[in-house]
Amino acid sequence: MNSRLRDFRRLGWFTLRRVLALFVTVLIGVYLTIVIANMGGKVDELRKLQIRSTVSESVRADPSFSEMDSEKRNELIKEQVQLQIEQRNLDEPFIWRSFDYLAQAIQLDLGRAEEMHSDTGSRAVYDIIVERLPATLLLFGTANLLVFFVSVYAALYLSRRYGSRLDRAVIGLAPSSAAPAWFYGIFLILLFAFVVPVLPAGGMVAIPPPEDPWVYAGSVLEHLVLPVIAMFLSSIFISIYSWRTFFLIHSSEDYVEMARAKGLPSNLIQSRYILRPTLAPIITNFLLMLIGLWSGAIILEQVFNWPGLGTLLFQAIGHRDTPVIIGGVVIFAYLLAVTVFMLDFLYAILDPRVRIEGGEQ
Amino acid sequence: MNRWVQGLRELRGYPSAVGGLAIILFLVALSLYTVITIPYSEALDRWRGGDHWQMNPVNAGPVWADRLLGGNLPQTRVVESDNADVREAPFEGGKQVRIPLTFEYDNEGFPSELNLFLNQKGTQQEAFVRLTWHTPSGETIPLGGQRVSEEDRISISQNRALEGRLGMVPHVGLFAGGSDPADPRAERGDYRLTVDAMLFDPGAELEADLAVYGRVHGLAGTDYQRRNLMLALMWGTPVALAFGLLAAVGTTITTLVIAATGVWYRGWVDALIQRLTEVNMILPMLPILVMVGTLYSTSIWLMLGVVIALGIFSAGIKTYRAMLLPIREAPYIEAARAYGAGNARIILRYMIPRILPVLIPTFVTLIPTFVFLEASLAVLGLGDPELPTWGKVLNDAQEQSALYNGFYYWVVAPAVLLMLTGLGFAMFGFALDRVFNPRLRTQ
């Protein structure tokens, strides 16, 4: 009883420290992003210039001011510019504002976009991001889940047939993963959209989008094929290779040899003696992959013209729309931190060493 | 040392290692050849485009691809007045010159463009030029006349009046003979363009060069600015190799030294390094590179610096740390401390060399990652503004919808080179991994 209490205290202490460390990590990471995305304050200068030009343009174009003499008009322009600058807090030094941004970002108050807006017309960063999320999740979820499960099963299969012709063929193909998915994408587009035009070259649905939901789904599916194949091709072999190596190392442990010597059926050995002790790294990998979905892939989405988060981020950077950039990074950072914490916690519960030594090493 | 020699000898048994090494050697040789034959400044200057390329066709495919498929498309040819039988007849205050530019056309399909370059020497006066076209079947087509200044170009292909008369674009119509305008076929034989010029200065000379642009050009073809793609493909090699190698060296070595320092000093140094690594994990690499590219500059060297800076505290530190921790307690380190080796010496000379063999395969497989990273940035339009690279060729092709227009060579050539680089290093690296990390060979 006493030892259990001690365990809990250690676990609580460990949890607290991890949460604090991760929070500081997120804080610093997000702050660095804010500074980079604002070019250390230079974006503000650009923004002020933009305000000045739009205000003077609108004043000059307004017929009710055309009678005014130029000095008064300049005065008016100056006043309005000042007003707008104050409205956006642009008169404060960047250093202070950067901390404001940080506080807002950490509270997940993502604010409003400077230039961009969602398809429904909303300017809230939250709406913009949420609108693009399904497209990214659909594409990367499909591809990554496919790669993950196929590679784990294939690796288990190959590790039992170590050295066979199939095994060697897969190892021989592993270097093909040196090329990223977008690269295979270009070839696939060339082959299946232009040389043999059977699939669409890009986009997510046909234009105009079909009315009937079934036809719509079919169209999305059709557009999904090439990018998924591209991602699958670029990572499947290296993935199988590394899982296979991993399983091979674990299936040469003494307790597995022992089980074999006892004459246990190979299915039982696989599920109880190989898979169970390796479950933790497999789960880690799976969770990290799930977070990886969030960031999307800028280039693959660009190549396939896929309206996901990667494209959004790229457009936001092009428009120097810092709230959108920071919003994307903040959410990514939080998700990563939460996952890392969950993994730590899981390990702490599963691994007695962590409890005894209080978390260090 | 023996271990290395033995390892290398063992590599010969792996076909993938031999293949990979062959590809790497080929790429290195190609880059050396490129750097020696086309100096850096010249490459930049030419890639900027302009008059260098005025004798090249626009968007022409490679010759070998056409010939391999049994085609016989025309290559560019230039008919110069230097070799022509020029006749002059003086009159008061000037002279009349007749330059017959004759050439034999023996190809399938039509030229892609027709241009006449005129160069008048020894006078400031404008000349008057009248052009006549003679087909092999004896037909004579007047192409009209115009005034020309000292150096001038007459774009016969863009002569709208002529196009209206022929019912086809001039570079097709002039070669079509009497064939059906709906399905024109090139007439083979000797063509002649007669240039009749009135020069208003007795001392003036006129040079005329007729460029009959082809549909295929050289080994690699040309792009929309008439630039020979070979230049970019060749210069892309040293750029890609240098970028990949420098980035891989920069990130691996700094990461390794920092990991070793952390392990050696322990305590707050180690903790700080670990926290920094975690911060770095949150920072998204590609978006930051894109930000730097859009907001600051797209110079390839700045990108290289940012890649290395972001790579210093990469996730690799955790792996190296795990490898170095047991080494720290090894007896030979204790011995080194006993005879008074300093901290830096122990880290650099005792700890790091110990795990180098394990790292070399990782290092080799890391190179293509950075080569592709550079290409990725270029494909996003953030390539170096001046340097010709494979990624920039791909980007140009994408922007000009090369695939849609059927200019496959434009995409395929740089992509194949990228793939070759990736495969070469990856194959070699995987083989190295099996030789230097033999934990699986005993199975």
Automatic annotation (TrEMBL), chain B:
<keyword id="KW-0812">Transmembrane</keyword>
<feature type="transmembrane region" description="Helical">
    <location>
        <begin position="355"/>
        <end position="380"/>
    </location>
</feature>
<dbReference type="GO" id="GO:0005886">
    <property type="term" value="C:plasma membrane"/>
</dbReference>
<dbReference type="InterPro" id="IPR035906">
    <property type="entry name" value="MetI-like_sf"/>
</dbReference>
<protein>
    <submittedName>
        <fullName>ABC transporter permease</fullName>
    </submittedName>
</protein>
<dbReference type="InterPro" id="IPR000515">
    <property type="entry name" value="MetI-like"/>
</dbReference>
<feature type="transmembrane region" description="Helical">
    <location>
        <begin position="285"/>
        <end position="313"/>
    </location>
</feature>
<feature type="transmembrane region" description="Helical">
    <location>
        <begin position="20"/>
        <end position="40"/>
    </location>
</feature>
<feature type="transmembrane region" description="Helical">
    <location>
        <begin position="407"/>
        <end position="432"/>
    </location>
</feature>
<dbReference type="GO" id="GO:0055085">
    <property type="term" value="P:transmembrane transport"/>
</dbReference>
<keyword id="KW-1133">Transmembrane helix</keyword>
<keyword id="KW-0472">Membrane</keyword>
<comment type="similarity">
    <text>Belongs to the binding-protein-dependent transport system permease family.</text>
</comment>
<feature type="domain" description="ABC transmembrane type-1">
    <location>
        <begin position="241"/>
        <end position="429"/>
    </location>
</feature>
<dbReference type="Pfam" id="PF00528">
    <property type="entry name" value="BPD_transp_1"/>
</dbReference>
<keyword id="KW-0813">Transport</keyword>
<feature type="transmembrane region" description="Helical">
    <location>
        <begin position="232"/>
        <end position="265"/>
    </location>
</feature>
